Amino acid sequence: MTACVVIPARYGSTRFPGKIVASETGMPLVQHVVMQAKKCKHVREVIVAMDDERIRNALASFGTKCVMTSPKHQSGTDRIAEVAKDLKDEIVVNVQGDEPEIDPAVIDSLIERLQAHRDDMATAATAFPPGEDPQDPNLVKVAISPFGHAVYFSRAAIPYQRDETETRREPYYLHLGIYAYRRDFLLRYASWPPTPIELTEKLEQLRALEHARSIFVLKVNRATHGIDTPEQYEEFVERHQRQSRLTI
User: Among 148, 211, 221, 179, which Cα is nearest to 78's?
Assistant: First the structure.
């Protein structure tokens, strides 16, 4: 059962225009993601699904495979589904283009889950890191069943602890934006219209749950750093430079 990583790369960004090709490290941001994905033992190919020729131009010297997709897509899922139509792989992994420190082991673990079980898709979560606020609506929470499947995703802090005098039985889990899909399911999923709860929460993964499909949630030890702002990018550049000095 082969797998392909597809990285949705949109040039426009409200908070950080052109971030996907920011190159202060000597390499475009999205190329760092490509390099991490290529370390995976179960990945046959890595493709960047782009919406702007400037992305292809920035990646040309690295030999990265790029596929132009429609600029009208409303989500990364729609963008990777367009690419997946022409793939033969049974599993397609959506890795965000602004996750330069994504752990290859997480990608491999999601692929292994779909290879061994009948889930429609798989994603990842981690216990809320110290210092992060579960009440922050920009941080998506996921409630997980005892069998490892997503019960619900929300911008609210879930599950709600009604009795504050009791010791909390279950930690809050921070959802991480990586998804592995069975290719056939991905194409159906992308063809469905948005669902009511999805539109309410503005979380497209709820569309799968509203169609009673199974999402396995892999629990990982830590969250990697997604890049949303110029300040976060500068912090990544500093981490990268420190790591480069250590490996010299």
Answer: 179
Closest CA to 90 of 123, 114, 106: 114
Q: How far apart are CA 4 and CA 173, in angstroms?
A: 27
| Spatial contact of 216 and 117, defined as CB atoms under 8 Å apart | yes
Task: Kindly list the distances between the CA atom of residue 157 and the CA atoms of 138, 174, 224, in Å, as whole numbers in the listed order.
Answer: 11, 10, 21
Q: Can you tell me the mean pLDDT for 14-43?
A: 95
Dist. CA 216–CA 147, nearest whole Å: 9
pLDDT digits (tens, 9 = 90+) for 63-115: 999 999 998 888 889 999 999 999 999 999 999 999 999 999 999 999 999 99
Q: What is the pLDDT of residue 248?
A: 60
The residue type at 190:
A
pLDDT band per the 50, 70, 90 thresholds, residue 19: very high
Round to whole Å and give the CA distance between 115 and 118: 8
Q: In this predicted structure, what is the pLDDT of residue 222?
A: 82
Q: So where are the chain's domains?
A: 3-247
Which tokens is 77 given? 């899922």
* Distances 93 to 35, 78, 81, 201 between C-alpha atoms, Å: 15, 13, 11, 23
CATH architecture of 3-247: Alpha-Beta Complex (3.90)
